[in-house]
Amino acid sequence: MSLLNLAPVIPVVVIEDVETAVPMARALVAGGLPAIEVTLRTAGALEAIARIAAEVPDATVGAGTVRTAADIAAAVAAGATFLVSPGTTPALLEAMAGSGVPYLPGATTVSEVLALAERGLKELKFFPAEAAGGVPYLKSLAGPLPDVRFCPTGGVRPDTAASYLALPNVGCVGGTWLTPADALASGDWARVEKLAAEAAALR
Ligand code: 3PG
Fold first, then answer.
1. What is the pTM assigned to this prediction?
2. pLDDT band at residue 1 using 50, 70 and 90 as cut-offs
3. Distance (Å) from CA 133 to ligand 1 centroid
4. Distance 150 CA to ligand 1 centre (A)
5. Eight-class DSSP state of 128
6. Of 22, 42, 73, 101, which has the fewest CB atoms closer than 10 Å, so is most exposed?
7. For ligand 1, atom 4: residue with the closest CA
């Protein structure tokens, strides 16, 4: 399974209230975005992954902000079907490779990308996308490294997503704009579904 081909946009979500996880996931799927990255940044993140995995069969739920081998073990035990890390260390890479699920290791620099490509990893998260150079940076990478594809995340917004997606070395983008904190807090699932539908139509 190529994680970059699941949808044009992977919603990166921060779950403050675990009760919002299932209706949020249903709204994202209804809008056309089935791949959901739940960041391990809140106390309820693992429970949110477990609930989405159990109750929203059409969602492909993964864990983001994975930083340690313990994160990976806990995420996979909860039901995460993919992993995303903001950057990559040798220990993290070993743990992701041993997890049994697909993963997107994070990379920013040319040398980091080369080190992962050397290991056969050619689908990567590019983070923090906008701060690290955005579209022009990725365009530059496509020259020497045409076989490596990215999911740029970090600072990507609805008005910039299309320019990333137009690049030959971008498979999808990630972002938090699909699930604004106030929409989650107020249960505005129609808004989440609308944002997802607009994003799904980007390509
Ligand atoms: C990430 O972990 O990928 C970023 O926090 C995404 O956040 P943003 O879309 O709000 O920049």
1. 0.97
2. confident
3. 15
4. 15
5. T
6. 73
7. 154
For residue range 153-184, list pLDDT tens digits in order: 999 999 999 999 999 999 999 999 999 999 99
The CATH number given to whatever domain includes residue 52 is 3.20.20.70
| Complex prediction ipTM | 0.89
Nearest CA to 82 out of 113, 104, 98, 67 is that of 104
Whether the Cβ atoms of residue 86 and residue 125 lie closer than 8 Å to each other = yes
Count the domains in the chain: 1
The answer to whether residues 91 and 69 touch, using CB atoms and an 8 Å cutoff, is: yes
Domain range for 37 is 3-200
Q: Residue whose CA is closest, atom 6 of ligand 1?
A: 154
Do strands 9-13 and 173-175 pair parallel, antiparallel, or not at all (unpaired)?
parallel
Q: How far is CA 92 from CA 2, 88, 190, in A?
A: 20, 6, 37
